[in-house]
Amino acid sequence: MRKEISETIKLSIPIIIAQLGVTLMGMTDNLMVGRYLGAVPLGAAGLANSLSFLMSSIGVGGLGVVAALISQAKGQHNTAEIGKLFRAGLIVSLILGIGLGLAGMLIGIELHLFGQTPEVTRLTKPFLYILSASTLPLLVFVAARQLADGLSLTRVAMAVTVSALIFNAFFNWIFINGIGFFPRMGLNGAAFATLLSRIYMAVAILVYIYKSKNFTPYLTASHQQALGKLIKKVFQLGIPVGFQFFFEIAAFSLAVVIIGWLGENQLAAHQIAINMASTTYMMATGIASAGAIRVGRAYGEKNPFKVKQAGTAALLLTIAFMGVWCVTFLTCNEFLVSLYLKDNAEVTTIAATLMIYAGFFQLSDGVQVTALGALRGLTDVNVPTVITLIAYWVISLPLSYFLAFTFKMDVEGVWVSLSAGLTFSAVFLTIRFYRISTKVMPR
């Protein structure tokens, strides 16, 4: 177990940094919008980021199954299969990128149905259109990184993502404020910076893959081989996994809508707290991805003991990692909130309270996403999808409305409800992994 934990740490650190970089782009948008433009634009940026990520989550989550399949093929020493999976993943990313991008724009057209204040709706629409256009390059990047991650070459995506984060922060500053000969674009400048950053990410990782000798054997071995069956397989496995992410993120996104009904200050405060919680969540998804790769490798080797060991190592790491963040959120809540806003006492007070709730649900959030990753490594996708559907759409969302409005708990009631759904998901997904980990063998 000590060796397995060590291997998982080595594999997960670059993935965590890469995942953190993707999240920090949205966080950078919100930090700079809050600092330069104020609370209402911050709420609009948060709403647009939430809705855009909601749609792209189907593709981001679904494409994650490709790394597990590549890891399985690596365990079976099937070089040609690895190359075919990479190409199939790219094709699926193009299809999903176009479809989900258009869906995001459609949400923008009908944004008035979400019942937000007129000013938030006005500011959110163009921001959401630009972010929706960036879905295609984002998913191409995600698909390309599956090859590197599945082969345990996780530093590739890390390097690209970190450089893109710097790129994004720089152009946020320029486009929002109109530095030099660039016009002042205000809120929409942050969205354009994200669009350019995602295009850079897609181009950079593809150029590296096709130029690096590390990937040449896999690309040449599969050249001109038929991909129809693998594209179908990626869709069959990826769509349920995508909806696992969708159900969770949709619950959080619709929670934003419910909180918007409560008021602009509550919306801005929620955005600050959820930004912090989302950052730690995405870091936990790095451990989950490493766990999926390690479980997938053991699964490909037909070794049930190593399957269970790999999943356990990932879960232990997540508990330790999220435990640290739990303590941090509980003890440094006011300082963390002060990074976003300087002169809005009401929003600051609400956000500091929400950070306490965020601290408590760190463990459940981390465990459930790691258990999902371990199950993805086993290509077990259907039952986990049902579990996530119940957790967020049967428990979290109805309870959010009930506690917020019937029991007058306001925004705090929404956060209690989200915590309940996360805990349900964590418990039953973990039980699912241990129930099947020693029984399921590759087809």
UniProtKB/TrEMBL annotation:
Membrane topology annotation: Multi-pass membrane protein
A biological process from GO: monoatomic ion transport
Keywords, sorted A to Z: Antiport, Cell membrane, Ion transport, Membrane, Transmembrane, Transmembrane helix, Transport
GO-annotated molecular function: antiporter activity; xenobiotic transmembrane transporter activity
Location within or outside the cell: Cell membrane
Gene Ontology CC: one annotated term: plasma membrane
Spans through the membrane: 12-33, 53-73, 85-107, 127-144, 156-176, 188-210, 237-262, 268-293, 313-330, 350-374, 386-407, 413-434
Database matches in InterPro entries: MATE_fam, MATE_MdtK, MdtK-like
Top-level taxonomic group: Bacteria
Listed NCBIfam families: matE
Protein's UniProt name: Multidrug-efflux transporter
Protein's organism: Runella defluvii
